[in-house]
Amino acid sequence: MMTDMAPPNLSQRAREIGEAVERFVRETVVPYESDPRRDHHGAPTDELMHEMRGKAREAGVLTPHILDDGSHLTQVETAHVLIRSGLSPLGPLALNTAAPDEGNMYLLGHVGSDHLKDKFLRRMVAGEARSAFFMTEPAEDGGAGSDPSMMQTTCRRDGNHWIVDGKKAFITGADGAGVGIVMAKSEEPDSAGGACMFLVDLPDPAIRIEHVPNTIDNSMPGGHATVSINGLRVPADQMLGEAGEGFKYAQVRLSPARLSHCMRWLGGCIRANEIASDYACRRQAFGKPLVDHEGVGFMLAENLIDIKQAELMIYWCASVLDTGDLGTAESSMTKVAVSEALMRIADRCVQVMGGTGVTDKTIVEQIFREVRAFRIYDGPTEVHKWSLAKKVKREWRAANEARD
């Protein structure tokens, strides 16, 4: 079993859940990595997902971060569990801790009305329905990406309904999802041009998938679709929260969601490093095991350092979020530090394994591809650095104004 830098006062319940999750992933999920039930792009099919989730349900580890009474583990406890769920690229999918579902459940649990929780959240927590978060828009149309204020999808009132029109891009899991959270900019004067979020049942004839591009990653069913929304009618009671507050709710979701990405892919890189280390200790070259060559041994040593630093960053950011702070700056710092460290780890694992590392003989090459995509998703490194630089300037200005 793996070890990590979890705080010494980590709850016993988190330790027990983490052990059960790790055992399930290593013993039950890992064998599915060679299962041929994949789509044209290599992503696992919904049939494969539901089979694994059935076994997770039987083992009592389905949606392990949400307790039977509907409450969530703390972020620190969640880190301990989600790192272990990521030991296989299929782990988060099997356990129902994957993106975007995990982030969507978090948002709905914190902002949703009892009506929305009963209608939508219950199915998601039970692992019966995948979900999609419709925010990003096509760059070629000048739509919202890292800058959500550029949002062009609109919504307007029509009696007891809202009408949504627009186009979305890179919508993870849209193809085959049963629940959607759609974000649109309000045209109503009392919303001051703010954004709104709506819960919708999928599929819906007003939401049409135009294209699902082939991407470097393929761990998520449904891919990353481009979607057109034409005359989508949503009952007013399916608005998430208040009109015009959508950008604020997006931050409620994004800070913990980008941290959850760090947790899951750290688990993946820990597994990749285990495989690379085993290879280096077994493979002989020039009269001795690869690990005894400094060029190889030092790469594995650097991996251990990066893994531990990533763990520390994750638990530090989780502890900040547990204080009730949105932790926007902390999650940005963690996203940058961890995603870049994981890229180094995955790259070294491929390098240590040479030709074998670039084949599908192990999951190392997939981890490399997935982590490369992670450096972009939920905000690329450069956007987070830019945001942190603005924070430096604001704090400098505030300090100088205070002195004056």
From TrEMBL:
Signal peptide boundaries: none
Occurrences of domain Acyl-CoA dehydrogenase/oxidase N-terminal (ranges): 13-128
Keyword Flavoprotein: yes
Keyword flag Glycosyltransferase: no
Family under the similarity heading: Belongs to the acyl-CoA dehydrogenase family.
UniProt xrefs under PANTHER family: ACYL-COA DEHYDROGENASE FAMILY MEMBER 11, MEDIUM-CHAIN SPECIFIC ACYL-COA DEHYDROGENASE, MITOCHONDRIAL-RELATED
Protein name: Acyl-CoA dehydrogenase
Species: Altererythrobacter xiamenensis
Taxonomic placement: Bacteria, Pseudomonadati, Pseudomonadota, Alphaproteobacteria, Sphingomonadales
